[in-house]
Design brief:
The protein is an alpha/beta fold. The protein has helices at residues 20-29, 52-61, 79-85, 100-109, 155-168, 183-192, 201-204, 209-218, 228-233, and strands at 7-10, 35-40, 66-71, 89-93, 113-118, 136-140, 174-178, 196-199. The protein binds D-xylitol-5-phosphate and zinc ion.
């Protein structure tokens, strides 16, 4: 399956917040398919980020789908606000939703696509009763809370397991992977069955956003540039 292309969703968590509109314009121009927006509440995860006003502001400056990842306790209380702010996808954690089916219905009733995600230590089995209702399944390949962490290798097994679950149940859900996604592991993540790759530091820490996105989508790193020194060594 080498060469499988993917939808790339840069995570603005690694962008320069002081120049957010400019950063968004740059990734859009560079070929981003979606924009991933990380909402953290300082309670479910040990970090604080942004809320509905920032989603509303982003909605005004981009036509990219806004893929909003809710790392928060009691997301039900904010679904209305995020929907009105212009989110296209709202993704909730199984760990924070005791009535997950109700939460998913609540999201869909607001005309938003419903995503369900799970932490690295949470079993893929927790998705079995919700997979047919979900529009998106997000596999966390780091413990949520921060950008720039290392991909947890056992996530590959879980991605393949969830791919099989989606296919077996004829779910229409897209499969997204978030955390530590880089050009050097993108190909194996795609081969395991992912449709959408979230990438924060891999895009925003690169001097050339278009090159970073192309490398992720193709699932391999661009060949090293041939320098005069390298040629001399041959
Ligand atoms: C982590 C967030 C991720 C994060 C990914 O809690 O959910 O979306 O921004 O960042 P990288 O790609 O740098 O791991
Ligand atoms: Zn995220």
């Amino acid at each position: 399956m080498a060469g499988k292309t993917a939808c790339i969703a840069p995570s603005i968590l690694s962008a320069d917040f002081a120049r957010l509109a400019d950063e968004v314009a740059r990734v859009e121009e560079a070929g981003a398919d979606w924009l991933h927006v990380d909402v953290m509440d300082g309670h479910f995860v040990p970090n604080l980020t942004i809320g509905p006003p920032v989603v509303e502001a982003l909605r005004k400056v981009t036509s990219l789908p806004l893929d909003v990842h809710l790392m928060m306790t009691n997301p039900d209380a904010f679904i209305g606000e995020f929907a009105e702010a212009g989110a296209n996808y709202l993704t909730v954690h199984v760990e924070t939703c005791p009535h997950l089916h109700r939460t998913v219905q609540l999201i869909k009733e607001r005309g938003v696509k419903a995503g369900v995600t799970l932490n690295p230590a949470t079993s893929a089995m927790t998705l079995s009763e919700i997979v047919r209702e979900a529009d998106l399944i997000l596999i966390m390949s780091v413990n949520p809370g921060f950008g720039g962490q290392q991909f947890i290798p056992s996530s590959l097994h879980k991605i393949a397991e969830v791919r099989a679950l989606i296919d077996r149940t004829h779910s229409h859900a897209l499969l997204e992977v978030d955390g530590g996604v880089k050009p050097d592991n993108a190909e194996s993540i795609l081969e395991a069955g992912a449709d959408v790759l979230v990438a924060g530091s891999a895009v925003f820490s690169h001097h050339d956003y278009a090159a970073a996105i192309t490398a992720l989508r193709a699932g391999h790193a661009p060949p090293p540039r041939t320098t005069r020194a390298a040629v001399a060594q041959r």
